[in-house]
């Protein structure tokens, strides 16, 4: 192998860490690529029916057919997925293959127009340019639209007759509706082709107007392109010629007309302008039938992510209010498509996103193709292995990563143990550490371009586009890379914390945490192990260029080498141990080696258990992890990690050795060790006799040699059975029982305390000091009305802090605050803190002034930074807590009070005021503030003169904030009206900072 170049060495340095971010590309999907839509010719395509079934009666959706040039993977072509609507509606979606469909050139053209019209009309826009800019608006579909059909994403989604959707042999595409759509496009091209405006000033002149005398009936309603009887309008799909939007008719508003006052807001009418006047002034349209009743229309809306149960993220008991539109009928063009088709359009983005993701996973499986059984590996499992938590899916790679970590550790342990029979345990550990470290995993994964397959950002339906659709939210590429793939070069690496992870530009480039690639390698190994066992996982590792071979001759050599140990003098101990573990060794020397302590080497014995202990350590880790993975498939990855930690540790293994009297067979020559073992055994049996286990902080620490003994015996059994994992687990499961289960899982006290305080927004502080050979730990928790302080004392910091945390948890329980009550249960009613915990302190009720009323300038602060560093402060002020005079504190005393007000420099952009306030709370050790936000919806755009400048929007957000200053006051404040939720929180946070400055807690520095 050639020596790495300097560029390669620079790139590899620091790889695989969470701190480092790398720019990477995204793999294109081969299954949807093609050029056929640009050929203007007949074509034969593969057809797949997309069926939608609601769990509620009377809720019907039209089925669609997906037409692609390539044949899809069999598993993907028969997938099922649930889509979640609110309130509490589930749409069962299924994909099924139905052979091939031949389209002639005319059908291809009309199908493309259908695609372009509906996907742009519902999720995009059909006009190019805006009236507010003074530019003429052009009809998007006015000419040749081949540029809308990129070669990387080419397929058709067409509606089919629902009644026959279940019969693949009789596929009836709704050609009547598609032809109607094509006619509508031709009609729109005609009326928008006028030279004196966006469309002709009176588009209703012509055939429809001439029919007025023939059809002068009261039940006739004139639309832009036709006339219909009033009773047939309900549920009709229409297109508005002035907005370019698609609607469905809810009802005819009898008793109204275009001479009525125009609606400015939801429930308000403008007394100064009528509908006729509004459309004439803004659009230059003179209505020909102003006396017709207005139509009540259901507006099209953005697509939503329907792959995640809405129950997890919002209160589903209240569905958002539907805001209908009122419109004169003659501005609307009839499109002969059932409303069931319109409803199905909103399901397509989520369904196609899942289908595309599965196809990408299938493509990766085909690329790997390293084992005959690869075809049996589920695309869903590979999809899970390449999906990070940032995707906000109901699954992620976390569980498989945990399993893959154990597999890699075990495989490399076996490899080095067998390959280097003369290397001692320390050398083998060093080899293994280097082979499975994140830097190496990153190198191997990146060399196979796994980064192109990793899904690392949440599905954003607003940026999803179908073939023939333009994006409303483009992200132009400014990455400095002209190709889809990004070279593995150090100039595309950064450690800046401001770099946004996961945001994808229009060329598919995105910044990714370097460790994510290493995690994906582990999760893929886990996925292949789950699907095909160790052989398939090892084959994947070889594809990734791991040097990991299990040669049978090396296993036999290990057994032969162990058979040379003279075991007859210890035959009695060996046989007794075989009885205890329930296994008879074919090579007794393996067991003799497994029970021989290194102290025996001083007597001239040339072997000890350390090599087998190295092997058994990774073996038991894998066996227990695999058992937990299979047994508890519904628990989250974090709890699975906690379960593994609770079962795979020296304390558990030492107790297992004592329970089964394995220590009696240990061959050693150390009197000190004998005393430690004897004392530990006494403590263990005393705890068993009392019929209760000691709390975690009270358990006696077992000598590591006992855990090593269990691991080395496991390693010996593995070699004797020639790496038969099932046989080893059959032997060791009873020895390791009882295995900790989720209901018996006890988290470490410090972990529980931190989780509880983080959840409730309480701050904690910890400090330790050494006194003689003891460590004294002090942990303080600041509540809203008091400060709790507890101490712990032990020989090491971890145990001392555990004791202090254990006492604090007891104190909190006395106040009705427990880990089980808050962290272990889902949030209720969106409230984090029990109102009963609030103390009756004085409240300061404030309202933040509007921008025009503030004495501080709010604009032009884009270059601000967060909290000032120490060097930026005046000499008599410091942010380092140790340099302040801190009030003596104990249980129930006041909070920390700094010597001088803290100088702040607020970053005046979204998130800046909140971050500064949070940092100030941490500095003073106050509870975190609580926000409550309300939303108001408007029919017309609202101009917001907000904290960060002027914006427009249809939704207005107002946030209130509550901040508890312990033993001082409760600040309650209402922020200004903003265009989005987070900005409204920033407004409230900024007002709170101003009030805290007034009260003397801080000084806000002017950036000028």
SSE blueprint and pairings:
Elements: H1 6-12, E1 21-24, E2 43-54, E3 64-68, E4 80-85, E5 89-103, H2 105-123, E6 127-128, E7 138-139, E8 156-159, H3 175-191, H4 207-210, E9 220-222, E10 227-229, E11 237-240, E12 246-253, E13 261-263, E14 269-274, H5 275-283, E15 294-299, E16 325-327, E17 332-335, H6 339-345, H7 348-368, H8 379-385, H9 398-419, H10 425-436, H11 438-447, E18 493-494, E19 510-513, H12 514-532, H13 534-543, H14 552-562, H15 571-581, H16 588-594, H17 610-631, H18 637-647, H19 650-659, H20 671-689, H21 704-720, H22 725-736, H23 749-760, E20 763-771, E21 774-782, E22 787-794, H24 797-814, H25 819-822, E23 843-847, E24 902-904, H26 912-924, E25 930-946, E26 949-965, E27 969-974, H27 981-998, E28 1002-1004
Parallel strand pairs: 23-27, 24-28
Antiparallel strand pairs: 1-18, 1-19, 2-3, 2-5, 3-8, 4-5, 6-7, 9-10, 11-12, 11-17, 12-15, 13-14, 15-16, 20-21, 21-22, 25-26, 26-27
Helix pairs in contact: 2-3, 7-8, 8-12, 9-10, 9-12, 9-17, 11-12, 12-13, 16-21, 17-18, 17-21, 19-21, 23-24, 26-27
